[in-house]
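Subject: Interface between my chains keeps coming out wrong

I've been trying for a while to get a sensible model of this assembly. When I model each chain on its own everything looks fine, but I need the whole thing in one frame so I can look at the contacts. Pasting all components below, labels as-is. Any help appreciated, I'm running out of ideas.
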Amino acid sequence: MSKAISEQKGQAVKNGNGVYKYGNQRLIELQNVLKNYKTPAGDFMALKDVNLGIDQGEFIAVIGKSGSGKSTLVNMITGIDRPTAGEIYIGDVALHTLNEEHTAQWRGRNVGIVFQFFQLMPTLTILENLLLPMDFCNMYAPRERIERAMCLLEVVEIADHAHKLPAALSGGQQQRAAIARALANDPPILVADEPTGNLDSRTAEAVFLLFEDLIAQGKTLLMVTHDSDQAKRVHRTVTISDGEIVSED
Amino acid sequence: MNVNKQHLIINPRWRKVLRDLWEHKARTILVVLAIAVGVFAFGLLATAQVVLDHNLSEEYLAIRPASASLTLRSFDDDLIHAVRQMPDIEAAEGRRTFRTRLLLPTGEWIELNLMAIADYDDMRANQVRRQSGSWPPGRQEVLLERSVASYFNIHEGDEILIETSDAKQYTLRVSGLAHDLTQIPSHLIPNASGFVSFSTLEWLGGSHTYNQLDIIVAGDRGDKAHVQTVAADLKKRLEKDGYIVFLLDVPEPFQHPMASMLATVNYMLMVLSIVSYGLSGFLIYNTMSSIMAQQRKQIGIMKAVGGRERQIIGVYLGLVIVFGLLALLVALPAGVLGARLFCQYVANLLNFDLRYFHAPKWVFAMQSLMALIAPVLAAIYPIIHSARITVHAAITDYGVALERLRQDDLTGRLVERIRGLPRPVLLSLRNTFRRQSRLMLTLVPLAIAGATFIAVFGVRSAFQTKIGETTSLYNLDIQIIFDRPYRSSYVSREAMSVPGVVETEAWASSSATIVLPDGAIGPPVTLLAPPVDTTYIQASIKEGRWLLPGDRSALVVGEDLLNELPGYRVGDDITLEIDGQQRAWQIAGRTGRTSSSGTGPGTGASIAFVNYDYLARIQGTQGYATLLTVRTDRPDLIGQEQVARALEEHFKDRGLATGRVRTISLVIKDMTMRMYVLIGLMLLMAILLAIVGALGLTGTMSLNVLERTREIGIMRAIGATNRSIRQIVIIEGNVIVLLSWTIGTLLSIPFTTFLSRTVGMTFMKEPLPFTLPIEGIGIWLGLSLAIATLSSLLPAQRASRISVREALAYE
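Reply #2:
Try treating it as a single job with all components included. I did that and got this:
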């Protein structure tokens, strides 16, 4: 991966006592996180008193059955959803205390998200989809943004499709574009919610290799997956069932 | 590396805005047009107001309008010189007006008022301008007013046949055309006016003296009270010196006779344009709500990649501002072009030249603000509301296609209870009420457009009622006005000998001027004096009573006259000046509108009824008539006109001086024609409102189809044909329109009342009666159904083309 891509910027670092600003020792720390949804059928507890810690550079797989709370867990870490109770620390940030506005700003710079259904902006070209996070977070000079975006597209091997709209690309190519977009602002953390769930096995493998490469670059990666083979290849697997972490291997 | 320079210039979020606009061209066009309609109409009317005001007042001031005009029996140059020497008078001009008739190329006779001017190159007041041809007119030549020439298709060099009041005919050569801005143009009142030399006037049998004295007062000419004082003093002095002053007219200073009417018309049109602008906000709100609902997921993605709330708001406000800018691109040039055409139309109508056309900068500035403010205001709520959505809510949203139907949906349950309707119709009915706020926002513009449209017809009906009221007051077919009194029995007998004449009645008549309590001159009034037992007048007495035998100075006045005289009521005394003599009269009764000529200021004097015996006695004309009223056996205008012409010929053969012979039907026709000009303009604005409403309906139907793409796909999957899908959409459009028609019809009642009052007070000096415009309601229903079908056609077509695969893939 090119230097431009792996360049880090203002990342949170532990202090002399080996802890982050709020005393958390790990890059990602969830403490007694509880998430309750009110539904027409009554309250639904998606996460029950979850505690989880992830170190920088770790590659974590979150597995579990459908409806077990996997996506809720990653949504807590990305700030997409907020806990009903409990605390979430990401580096020097107490995520549970941030409002929507600050969360969006923080997320844009610190977390890259890869969705199962890619979620590319349909009216923007692939290149523009990559430029959008840089634009929102005001990262890099305009010319540098384009160079960086093209560089990322080369890394994910779809530079030739830079000026196409997402609908013109295959599922695998769109997911590569989504990964490139997640890396646009060079975030230290990547969260992927079933990134290969919609891809054929060959493309899924290519995407997974890309993740491994990112881990080698020092990124922290949390991946929700159903693929047990993939789960075996990560540093640690967190199994979740009925909103509780039942094992961490 | 291939770096596209475009990406350096426009950042991706603005590229998204532009792409969204381009991707949804039909939606963009709808919104842009909706904003543009109101902005265009405002630009047109505001520019027109400024331009017309400027041109009319500049041109009017340039002719040195008289501060006051006095009609005397006769005077000569000595008086003019003496008046010019008076310290309160800045200028004085003497003229002689001379009533004749003109034979048109069509064979019809019309009134031709000739004016003899002593020096065409030294007119001190009410200057007549040379238009074309020779100037001044030579002997046996006439300069026709230019509106006469254009309206009656008479050209320079033509020879015209005229007839004087003593039934002598003369041929005059049209030596050229002149422009007299003080005349009501022939397009509005189909009379004619022309200008001759005094030598021509003498050749025609007229006298070489003046009968009209136009003055310009010294001092503050803009102060009407000052003008009235000076004019009244002059009148007194003239009377003291033995002159007989028939009439004193003091017009509004520096104001063209039609200026206030024009201002009111413009004001009403302006109100309608602002309403249409306001209503376009509803369409924008609807469209933006829908856009924002469809963009929820994209908003979620943008937030997921770091977009902040205010950035998201900025993106969509940008979209709205682009809508506004595009609307401005359409509305600015269209407004200027429309204003130019409108000004030209009004200038032609009122017979003045459009020398200056310059769209004011403040109008552009206002239009720019309007084009940006309404969309932003209308869109701000849906944008902020949607931008506040959390990423989680946006990402997990199932899309608008699966909108929640409320369990307690009352309309839904009511629809379900309807028996006997086919399922697609029931589905359309239910669909209509699914988005109730959108439905309301679609109904309101359509209902207001409908109410305005119906109200315009209401005003038309009210005008017709009022005209009918005026004409039903006169239970007669023809009026013959004589230039001098003739024995009643003689003229009646002669008239009865003309085929078609069934009955006649001889009346007395006189011009009078009201003298106000402070001695100031009030409005002129025409006194009509029928016999006390007349059946030719069918006055509906609204207050007081009709004339009684033995009444001496009793007066029955119309509402129009009382409206001109605030403070006067039935039972009050009133001073009238007739032939220079002031007498006290008492207002015995009030009837409806009496004025038989004209529907606007300056187009006709009000009428008051008095007893024949009394008026004839004070005029010394007992047993004589100055007016003969005739009933015929002809029910139609053409038949009555034939009898009128036969009467004219007959009286001419007998050597009687008939000043004017006119049928009541023709009077109605003239009044109706003038009314249609106003109604036409108001209808144009109502149509603009209807366009906004139709655009709104098209937008709503398009959004409904778009949002129900998945549902339509499911219906197709279970066997719905193209026809049934189209039918569902079109029926829904028609249901909305029928609802709006119902609301519009109800709303039209206050609208009609308001519009009738405003128009009536401006044009008839009295509120028009409320008339339920059944015709307008019917026409609007037909138009509404046409709008519904047209507005739903494209969305229906689109719906029927949605494939099952495409529909089920839709989010």
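Reply #3:
Confirming on my end. Confidence is low (pLDDT under 50) at residues 1-10 of chain A.
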